[in-house]
Specification:
This protein is of the alpha+beta class. It contains 5 helices and 9 strands. Strands 1, 2, 3, 4, 5, 6, 7, 8 and 9 form a 9-stranded antiparallel β-sheet that branches. Strand 3 (83-88) and strand 4 form a beta hairpin. The longest helix is centred in the middle third of the chain and has 11 residues, at 118-128. The protein is globular.
């Protein structure tokens, strides 16, 4: 069974209908697609290899839990297909893909990406401006990938639907379910009964993905 719908042609921007699905459906389906960052030095293309789902006002791990509507979370209440970018610890940006319908706050956190070519990797290393001896050190974490792709809050609310902007997502090669693994999400003990939901997804045996959790199962 393919997670990626056959009508998505490799290299074409994902259509609006893709983002209309709930976050829990979009999160595993984003694995294998291509995140593109346009810069003055050229476009950087990366394969999305790890995601987390944060869906709906009932999810105690979500910034919008209980319908919390603030200046920061307002973008989560948008129509799916835009970027939600926030700062953690006062220094690390995190990139999220807003999904679902208007006023139903859902988002998918992009946790890790893999550069597609040596040229993509070279630009990412330049922007990362830090020693990255292992693949996971380059872009294996939401803060790391945002630094490697020069993603910050200036791109908050950016449409992800096409190549006219600075950030978008293109269809990658189809994957089968057995290529995807899942675990509980990372560092959300505060989410109580939602902390153990297996809503983190990643590409099996990918060197850019930090394991970080012992409870790993195949995607169902």
């Amino acid at each position: 069974m393919s997670l990626i719908f056959s009508q998505y042609h490799e290299g074409s921007p994902l259509p609006p209908a893709f983002y209309e699905m709930p976050a829990l459906e979009v999160a595993p389906r984003l694995i294998g697609h291509t995140l593109v960052r346009h810069t003055e030095d050229g476009d950087i293309r990366c394969r999305i290899v790890e995601t987390e789902s944060y869906g709906g006002i009932e999810d105690k791990g979500s910034h919008a839990y209980g319908g919390r509507r603030t200046a920061r979370t307002e973008v989560m209440f948008s129509q799916g297909g835009v970027a939600y970018i926030y700062l953690i610890y006062g220094m690390y940006h995190c990139l999220n893909v807003v999904t679902g319908a208007i006023n139903d706050p859902q988002a998918v956190l992009i946790r890790a990406v893999e550069p597609l070519t040596p040229d993509d990797e070279a630009l990412m290393r330049k922007y990362r401006n830090a020693a990255a001896k292992k693949p996971v050190d380059l872009s294996g974490g939401p803060g790391k990938l945002c630094r490697a792709l020069r993603i910050d809050k200036s791109l908050n609310c950016q449409s992800l639907l096409g190549p006219k902007g600075s950030l978008w997502i293109e269809a990658g090669r189809p994957l089968t379910n057995d290529a995807i693994m899942q675990t509980p999400r990372i560092n959300i003990a505060y989410a109580e009964e939602y902390a153990d939901k297996p809503w983190r997804f990643f590409l099996r045996d990918n060197p850019f993905v930090p394991l970080l959790h012992k409870n790993v199962t195949a995607f169902k």
